[in-house]
Structure formats: C-alpha cells, structure tokens
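Pilot study result, target chain (270 residues):
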Amino acid sequence: MSNTTRTVQELNLTDGFLFARVMADAETCRRILERILGASIRHVSIPASRKAADIHYGGNAIRRIVSLNDDRQTACHVEMECINQPEAFLPKKARYHEEDMDLDTRAAGDSCREPKRSFVIFICSFDPFGDRRHLYTFENRCAENPSLTLGDETTKIFLNTKGSMHDVDSEMQEFLSYVENTTDDFASRARSPLIKEIYKKVMEVKESKEMEVEYMTLLQRDRENLELGTTLATKIIKLYHKGISNEDIASSLQLDLEYVNSVISDYEND
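Predicted structure:
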C-alpha cells in the first residue's frame, strides 16, 4: 500500500489493495490487459502453480495466463509501482519476474522447449526512465542491428502515469490518469468505456463491508510488521556496535543473514 492512512473509500488504483482486488476480477483484468497489450484476449486465468499464493490482499502485483487470438498461452505479470527506486531497480526486478514466470511454466509441467510468451508490466506513478513517455516497451534486440530481434518472446512494458509526450492514444492517457485519480468525478467525466467498466469494479470493492474489514486487517498487520521490523533493527544495530559479527547476530536473533546484512548496510549508508 502506498498510503496506510487512507480509508478504503479514498484509495486510488495506485494503492496495492485496490489494484489487487480490482485486477482479481477476470473480466476487468482481461479488459485492462487487452488495452495494455493492444491485442484481443479470449480468456484469463491464474497459473495453477500460484493459485494459493495469488490471494494476497496486501500485494501490488498479479500474475495471469492469457489466451490470445492465436490460441497460444501467454504469461503476464502486472505490478503497480509507486516508489521510485534507484535507476537499475525496476529493470532487475523485471528480469527476476521473467525468470520466475519461466519457473511457473516448468512447475506446471510444460515443456522447457516451449516456454510461454511473457510480459512483465509495471504501472508506475513516476517516470522510470526520465524520458517523459507514457509507455516504454523493451525487447531483446541485436546491439549491432536493432531491427533484428532475438525472438525469445519476452517483453517488458513500463507505463508512466506522469508522461507528457503524445506517445499513446487518448484512451490510454485517460486510463493512466484514472489510476492516480480514481474518483467518482473523474469516472463520470471519462469518455473511455474501459474507465466506466473499471469504475464499476472499483465501486464494488469500495462499497463492500467485507473488503473494508480485510483492508483494516491488512493495515493492522502492516503496523505490527513495521513495529516488529523497527524492534529487530534496533537489536541488530546494538549487537553490531558491540563488535559482534553479522553471522553471530543472525544466529542469536534467529534471523536470516541476508536480512541482517541489509539492516546493517542501510545503517552504514545513512
């Protein structure tokens, strides 16, 4: 979640809870992915290997298998990003998700010789590359001859709600604006039928008592996790100042060494 002080009625689609619940609806998800990919989609489903993990109310990402017109299945990972990390963060994250989708394919028993086409899609509330574009699409190409594509059928798409170039059509611009301004007023003035459809699902979530309870439960869990993380970090730094090695700190506090290293690294870089 990007803002833990909001009520569920005040959330925008940039907030992880609302984004995940709206995208959990197969038809809404299908319509949005059709618009992003610029292709007709017949069916949307959750990968079999991820069905248990997909119900994650605090998540800001969803993963789906879509069937395009050529009947080949395509894996799509869609994620909302609201925090502008260091320059290389998102590209490396995209690489991780691409590899993870390949693992999903293998877990499902598919042939490694015929991996699914994959799209990693980030919807960003900031400009990830500073070029003022609404849309950045990356494929693997030959450095010596950019017109020659590798043909591995992997694509990374970065959408930027802050774009100012005329690089997408009016419907896409309206969608990206609605992501940040998910209000009744915006939806009533929107020309795009897609916004009208998304708005219906948004209102279902915002008006649901069940969703409100889940949202408040998530907020409380996040607060508890934050308090726990702060407490653990304080203990780690105290032991660190006593000259105890990272390995011994991890062992004594029963924590992963990677987490201990991360806390100490952040402390040293402050």
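One observation from the pilot: The mean pLDDT is 87. A full batch analysis is planned for the follow-on phase.
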